[in-house]
Design a protein that fits this description.
By secondary structure, the protein is of the alpha/beta class. It is built from 9 helices and 8 strands.
């Protein structure tokens, strides 16, 4: 299947999931996860109108970003080491994996130095799996309060990763819990602006995530194909 055909197939499935759940197609944005594909494929995605690019390793992502002349809107979707913030700040408009205060403070320091504001998602380990990164749901309110005090870091929503399941329906409670947690945090009015975004859903479960309120889905193989890089 060609890249164009994969994009069209994904678009059809996203649209169908939106229709099933009574949502507008514009409510859901696709982040193409390009961490395992080449610079050439990443460029072709941009040529096809996929504006949002997701990467998780600065050492691979930054050379791509530079080679592409900063084209696209870049999302950092993996665990971010504090000492790597200097490499991604100013290049990645979104950080999907804020999970500790030390990282938030480093993002604040680097963003302030550049005179910019970086948009972030708080990563929440809803499933409770030890293999997953993220804060516990019960820690979210206090963590949001601490991050909301930073002037160059803007929390726009929450992110989670569901367990890998053969039946995507089994992921529904995880996605629903993240949406409910966002709504609970908004009801507490901790931050000046409400949290509007939910980054959840990947290749195997994105349709369920959309039905449960995802505003950003992170799609790798199903969209970009199998990686040319290891």
């Amino acid at each position: 299947m060609s890249l164009k055909e994969r994009i069209q197939q994904v678009e059809h499935r996203v649209l169908a999931a939106c229709e099933r759940s009574g949502r507008q197609r514009d409510d859901v944005k696709v982040v193409a996860v390009t961490k395992y594909v080449s610079l050439e494929t990443t460029g072709l995605l941009l040529d096809e109108g996929i504006a949002h690019i997701g990467e998780n390793r600065p050492q691979r992502a930054v050379p791509k970003w530079e080679a592409l002349g900063g084209r696209g809107i870049w999302h950092f979707i993996g665990s971010l080491q504090t000492n790597k913030v200097k490499d991604v700040i100013g290049k990645f408009q979104y950080i999907h994996s804020l999970d500790r205060l030390s990282l938030a403070k480093e993002l604040e320091k680097r963003a302030a130095a550049l005179g910019i504001t970086v948009s972030v998602f708080l990563q929440v380990n809803v499933s409770g799996e030890s293999s997953k990164q993220g804060i516990r749901p019960e820690e979210a309110a206090q963590f949001l309060k601490e991050v909301a005090a930073l002037s160059h870091v803007k929390v726009i929503g929450l992110m989670t990763m569901a367990p890998i399941e053969e039946d995507p329906e089994l992921t529904r409670p995880v996605f629903r819990r993240l949406r409910e947690l966002r709504d609970q945090l908004n009801a507490q009015q901790i931050s000046q602006e409400p949290l509007t975004e939910l980054s959840m859903g990947m290749s195997g479960d994105f349709e369920v995530a959309i039905e449960e309120g995802a505003t950003w889905i992170r799609l790798g193989t199903i969209l970009v194909g199998k990686g040319e890089e290891t």
